[in-house]
Amino acid sequence: MGKPVEIKPGVYWVGVNDYETKLFESLWSLPHGVSYNSYLILGEKKVLVDTVKAEYADELIENINSVIDVKELDYVIVNHLEPDHSGSLPEIVKNAPNVKIMGTSRAIDMVKSFFHLDQETISVRDGSTLDIGGKTLRFIEAPWLHWPETMFTYLVEDKILFPCDAFGSFGALSNKIFDDEVDLELFFSESKRYFATIVSKYSKFVLRAIEKVKNLGIDIEIIAPSHGPVYRKNPIKIVELFERWSRNAPEKRVVIVYGSMYGNTKKIAEVLEENINSEGIDTAVYNISYSDISFILSDLLNAPAVIFGCPTYDGNIFPPIRHLVNLLEIKRLQRKIIGLFGTYAWGEMHCHN
Ligand SMILES: Cc1cc2nc3c(=O)[nH]c(=O)nc-3n(C[C@H](O)[C@H](O)[C@H](O)COP(=O)(O)O)c2cc1C
Ligand SMILES: [Fe+2]
Ligand SMILES: [Fe+2]
């Protein structure tokens, strides 16, 4: 559950906390849950920025109703169509029949193909603004973060940037939403894991979007992403972290990931670890079968070197290592020095069909 929190006069967090989903995108573990942040902005017109996962639509509507009557909504801004943010759109439309849906033209195309709604839609141009009476919204296209249709929304008078998934984090908010009231260390590590698993493939678009926003010369006091904390004390910190992760800034660390059925490959991993440590270099060592893959990816993100250890398995590499290598390719986490070691019992690594 989450109760609305006023961020600035007339701007509310009306999101929800999900402690039920075990795997985000059915892939990435959520030991601390996840939040879907939705925001209500009240000028003369009433605006909702992003919605929440479909299962939580009732809670979102309850949150909105505790501030205004949901029927009064004039606009819903769709920064991103992934269902963790757009899933409640049909319920919002049902409850607020006059609401207009706004997004990039790609987003509006996707709204139409996802939902078949009769609602009025408005495609916004990059840099265009919407005067809502007392407050102004500015739309900044930020494609491929991490889908093609994405944009940021900027609330001019209150200097709040709503960048949706950019600068997001795993971890639910349990009624404390600001960077100065949550366990930031935990959130920064959850944010890195979020970056590694969701955003890393699109690193160059992160850098492009940061550059673009910097060049706009707008003043940003608060960053309000669609997952994780709202940054009001030190908003630049999360931007710097995303920038560092995107640049693949190397940390002095070697990650060793091995599999082992009977302990032989494990022995080699241990000797390697000792030798590398004796050179004054830190190591992180993972037994792949008993480690959470999202934590391995997060640790691999800015590690300059990775060493894989695998026992030969039916004429092939040990299957979970193959899975990891595949993920590194998909997430474009490949720019690393690679080491390999392994063991075998009866000979060559080829299949006998
Ligand atoms: C299911 C299975 C399949 C194996 N396939 C091969 C193989 O194709 N070629 C080979 O030389 N050894 C094969 N081995 C032997 C292992 O690679 C060897 O025992 C290795 O040292 C095991 O390492 P570990 O003790 O770290 O599990 C296989 C072993 C098992 C249990
Ligand atoms: Fe997303
Ligand atoms: Fe998301």
Which SSEs are present, and which pair or pack?
Blueprint: E1 5-8, E2 11-13, E3 16-18, E4 23-24, E5 28-29, E6 34-36, E7 39-42, E8 46-49, H1 57-65, E9 75-77, H2 83-86, H3 89-95, E10 100-103, H4 105-115, E11 121-123, E12 129-131, E13 136-141, E14 151-155, E15 160-162, H5 184-199, H6 203-216, E16 222-223, H7 235-246, E17 253-258, H8 264-278, E18 282-287, H9 293-300, E19 305-311, H10 319-330, E20 337-343
Parallel strand pairs: 8-9, 9-10, 10-11, 15-16, 17-18, 17-19, 19-20
Antiparallel strand pairs: 1-2, 2-7, 3-6, 4-5, 7-8, 12-13, 13-14, 14-15
Count of helix runs = 10
> Unreliable segments (pLDDT under 50, ≥5 consecutive)?
none
Note the overall shape.
elongated
Strand content: 15-25%
Bound molecules: flavin mononucleotide, fe (ii) ion
Radius of gyration: 23 Å
Fourth CATH level, the homologous superfamily of the largest domain: Ribonuclease Z/Hydroxyacylglutathione hydrolase-like
Might you state the CATH topology name of the largest domain? Metallo-beta-lactamase, Chain A
CATH class division of the largest domain: Alpha Beta
> Could you give the distance between the termini?
56 Å
Examine the secondary-structure arrangement and name the CATH architecture of the largest domain. 4-Layer Sandwich
Strand order of the largest sheet: 1-2-7-8-9-10-11
Number of strands: 20
What distinguishing features does this structure have?
single chain; 353 residues; alpha/beta; Metallo-beta-lactamase, Chain A; Rossmann fold; 2 domains; seven-stranded mixed β-sheet; five-stranded mixed β-sheet; 10 helices; 20 strands; 31% helix; 23% strand; elongated; binds flavin mononucleotide; binds fe (ii) ion
